């Protein structure tokens, strides 16, 4: 899951670099166009400059088309990979297929049969063979240990990945409701408040959430127009708006990761390698969290999890950036008696939360 998110965010960052370069090219062209600058050029240079100046609309259309198609492609690949990774991650935390969430167990058979049908169709390119899919399904139904789910089956789709379809994917996993969970995710809340700090998002009703997250469906509609060769000049977005679209999609994708991690963390905190710390003694600036504990082993890079009490998004989580005892930085602490220590993290801590530490290796 973490790798899928990192790859997705790297893609959106690369796309923003392309937009930055395109903006600089346009700025350079505008500096060269005044007559006093053109007069200092050779005839061939002026001819090339005039040609570029005459193709401004074509260049805007190209930049827009590349941005829209690329951004949608990044989102679709990410959704497919994230869902498959989530199933693989969750299945690694349980001993048998029967311990998987009910929704996954319920949907696995029909979706596996559909995946096997697609694998047998030459029009579809799948990494799995039909025989392998059936073998995995049989292992799950027969109670084999270890077991292997057909994780790719849960992201089967025909047509574009819009809000409705993403919600359907999550429902197959037993993760709902889609829009309220994404909206309440820390990343989405941070993004929305940075865009409109004066708006009171606590008053947004569930019925209005589709409008708040509408840029996803708008991206899908624009991608379809571009793919069908319909690029209306009057409908082109500026580079600044395309930048903002990239940031929104990145926030949405990161929030989806947070939503699915809620389910993973719920399982992880009950495992033997989780360390319960209880409530903090003190929290400073929502980033420094102080505890007293007598028996634990914690190192920088482990994941600090906070139980928020929020039924929609019950956990916050972030890596531990640093640990101190008596003002001295420690890479790792192993406690065998009552000791006070402090940890720095980015999860927006509160003294009202209950805390658990998960090993860094569990932060998939």
What does the secondary structure layout of this molecule look like, with pairings?
Elements (H helix, E strand, L loop, with lengths): L1 H31 L2 H4 L4 H12 L1 H36 L10 H18 L10 H13 L20 H11 L4 H7 L1 H10 L13 H4 L2 H13 L11 H30 L6 E5 L2 E3 L3 E6 L2 E4 L3 E5 L7 E11 L2 E3 L1 E4 L3 E7 L8 E5 L6
Antiparallel strand pairs: 1-10, 2-3, 3-9, 4-8, 5-6, 5-10, 6-7, 6-9
Helix pairs in contact: 1-4, 1-12, 4-11, 4-12, 5-6, 9-12
Low-confidence stretches: none
Q: Biggest sheet, open or closed, and with what strands and sense?
A: 8 strands, antiparallel
Helix content: 40-55%
Q: Decide which structural class fits the backbone.
A: alpha+beta
Overall number of structural domains = 2
Element-level helix/strand string:
HHHHHHHHHHHHEEEEEEEEEE
- pLDDT average, as an integer? 91
Share of residues in strands: 5-15%
Number of strands: 10
C-alpha Rg (nearest Å): 25 Å
State the separation between the terminal residues, measured CA to CA.
5 Å
**Global morphology:** globular
Number of H- or I-type helical stretches: 12
């Amino acid at each position: 899951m973490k790798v899928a998110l990192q790859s997705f965010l790297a893609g959106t960052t690369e796309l923003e670099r392309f937009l930055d370069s395109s903006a600089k090219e346009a700025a350079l062209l505008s500096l060269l166009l005044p007559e006093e600058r053109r007069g200092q050029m050779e005839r061939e240079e002026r001819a090339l400059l005039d040609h570029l100046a005459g193709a401004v609309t074509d260049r805007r259309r190209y930049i827009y088309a590349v941005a829209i198609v690329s951004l949608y492609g990044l989102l679709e690949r990410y959704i497919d990979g994230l869902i498959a990774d989530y199933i693989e991650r969750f299945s690694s935390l349980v001993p048998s297929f029967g311990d998987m969430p009910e929704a996954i167990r319920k949907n696995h058979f029909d979706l596996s049969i559909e995946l096997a049908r697609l694998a047998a169709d030459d029009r579809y390119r799948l990494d799995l063979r039909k025989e392998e899919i059936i073998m995995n399904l049989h292992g799950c139904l027969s109670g084999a240990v270890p077991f292997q789910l057909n994780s790719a089956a849960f992201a089967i789709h025909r047509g574009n990945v819009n809000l409705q379809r993403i919600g359907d994917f999550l429902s197959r996993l037993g993760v709902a409701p889609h829009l309220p969970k994404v909206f309440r995710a820390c990343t989405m809340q941070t993004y929305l408040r940075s865009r409109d700090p004066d708006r009171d998002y606590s008053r947004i009703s569930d019925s209005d959430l589709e409008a708040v997250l509408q840029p996803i469906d708008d991206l899908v509609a624009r991608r379809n127009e571009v793919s069908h060769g319909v690029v209306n000049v009057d409908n082109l977005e500026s580079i600044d708006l395309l930048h903002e679209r990239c940031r929104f999609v990145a926030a949405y994708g990161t929030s989806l990761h947070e939503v699915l991690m809620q389910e993973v963390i719920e399982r992880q905190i009950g495992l033997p390698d989780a360390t319960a710390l209880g409530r903090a003694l003190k929290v400073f600036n929502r980033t420094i969290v102080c505890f007293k504990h007598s028996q634990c082993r914690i190192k920088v890079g482990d994941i600090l999890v906070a139980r928020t009490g929020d039924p929609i998004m019950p956990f916050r989580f972030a890596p531990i950036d640093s640990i101190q005892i008596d003002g001295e930085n420690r890479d790792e602490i192993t406690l065998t008696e009552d000791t006070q220590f402090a940890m720095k993290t980015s999860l927006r801590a509160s003294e009202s939360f209950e805390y658990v530490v998960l090993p860094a290796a569990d932060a998939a």
